[in-house]
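Lecture notes, part 5. Sequence design as translation. It can be helpful to think of inverse folding as translation between two languages: the language of shapes and the language of residues. The source text, in structure tokens, appears below.
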């Protein structure tokens, strides 16, 4: 049985949109990361990684036993397809562990120009059954990222009817797309920015009204609500309550969505799933999700949560708003701790007297009250209002380097 970084046969796969989120994913326990180059990936809003950065990511990740998967999952046109051979050759030379592709022509080029690199078939391939998974395996796929529209029972059947060497990956956390497995034309139609090339403007999150033909200039909310109606606004997925079911139905890799999201998001989601998976394997028969891990996922900015299609056809739309639930702000990062003093880099304003919440890379989160703030020139001050200022704060509990320090919103 294949084991991943933490010695478990189930992988925690984290998103990295830029360098800081990559380092954070490693520090907070990811078994593998997925990221995109400057071209050919489905997230152009992210900073992404150039060729030299990809090589450095692979070098650092492999030193820690972490795998690196690179997205090449756009649906390319003929002008783009001619540039892919050079890109795949670069990824092969960088020794990335796998490329994630959605198009069978792209798959063929990957086999030719990166013959020693594993191929993962993207969720955009739309794999809904074991026959399609077997065909792709016979074509050279090492892993299939299943369509998000499947139940636990569907996934278990696929697992039972494909070779044990074929790995199965599923999204378990993050934004959901209203269209089938992410294939959507709404953005291209409405804004000229193509979702299938990573440029989605998310018009499914916008507010919509009805117009009546003979009442020019008048619009009508589809239901009586002062904020309008959000017809297509999908909930976010959160499967932290179902770790045993995810593992026991045969999923190899638990994938966290979010390459366009913050480093903090990467830290919290990686932390939660890393710890939950480890706890499961310590004692599968008596496993119970601790409340503190479930609560962590409420401390990131998110839409209302759902379980997607895993449990069946649960309603997945949020009709009353298009925004996020955000109850915590990151106010500082810990650069080090010595002799009862935490050395911080400020991110958002906080005050003497505030109760702050610390998320360490390892161990449980904890709180402490700010009794003093010493600024970068050694003055004792009442508040920290300057972004990126170096501060010193006393704390009786050691704060590990790399910890995120948060404050709950008032009210």
């Amino acid at each position: 049985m294949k084991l991943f970084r933490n010695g478990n046969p189930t992988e925690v796969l984290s998103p990295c949109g830029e360098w800081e989120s990559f380092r954070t994913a490693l520090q907070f326990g990811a078994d593998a990361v997925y990221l995109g180059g400057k071209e050919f990936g489905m997230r152009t809003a992210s900073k992404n990684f150039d060729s030299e950065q990809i090589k450095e990511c692979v070098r650092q990740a492999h030193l820690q036993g972490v795998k690196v998967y690179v997205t090449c999952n756009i649906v390319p046109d003929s002008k783009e397809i001619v540039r892919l051979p050079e890109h795949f050759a670069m990824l092969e030379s960088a020794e990335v562990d796998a490329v994630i592709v959605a198009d069978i022509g792209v798959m063929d080029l990957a086999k030719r120009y990166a013959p020693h690199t594993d191929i993962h078939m993207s969720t955009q391939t739309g794999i809904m059954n074991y026959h399609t998974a077997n065909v792709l395996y016979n074509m050279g796929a090492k892993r299939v990222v299943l369509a998000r529209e499947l139940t636990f029972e569907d996934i278990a059947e696929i697992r039972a009817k494909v070779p044990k060497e074929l790995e199965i990956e599923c999204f378990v956390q993050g934004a959901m797309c209203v269209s089938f497995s992410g294939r959507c034309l709404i953005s291209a139609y409405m804004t000229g920015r193509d979702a299938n090339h990573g440029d989605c403007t998310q018009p499914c999150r916008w507010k919509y009204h009805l117009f009546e033909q003979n009442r020019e200039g008048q619009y009508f909310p589809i239901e009586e609500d002062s904020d309008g109606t959000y017809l297509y606004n999908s909930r976010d997925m959160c499967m932290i309550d179902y770790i045993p079911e995810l593992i026991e139905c045969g999923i190899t890799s638990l994938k966290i969505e979010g390459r366009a999201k913050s480093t903090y998001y990467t830290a919290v989601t990686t932390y939660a799933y890393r710890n939950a998976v480890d706890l499961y394997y310590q004692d599968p028969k008596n496993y119970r999700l601790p409340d503190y891990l479930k609560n962590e996922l409420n401390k990131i900015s998110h839409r209302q949560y759902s379980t997607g299609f895993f449990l069946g056809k649960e309603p997945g739309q949020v009709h009353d708003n298009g925004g996020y639930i955000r109850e915590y702000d990151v106010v500082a990062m810990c650069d080090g701790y010595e002799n009862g003093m935490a050395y911080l880099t400020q991110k958002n304003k906080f005050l003497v007297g505030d109760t702050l919440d610390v998320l360490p890379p390892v161990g449980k989160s904890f709180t402490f009250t700010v009794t003093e703030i010493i600024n970068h020139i050694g003055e004792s001050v009442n508040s920290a209002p300057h972004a990126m200022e170096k501060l010193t704060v006393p704390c009786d509990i050691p704060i590990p380097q790399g910890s995120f320090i948060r404050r709950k919103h008032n009210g």
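The translated text above is only one of many valid answers, since several sequences can fold into similar shapes. The longest helix spans residues 263-282.
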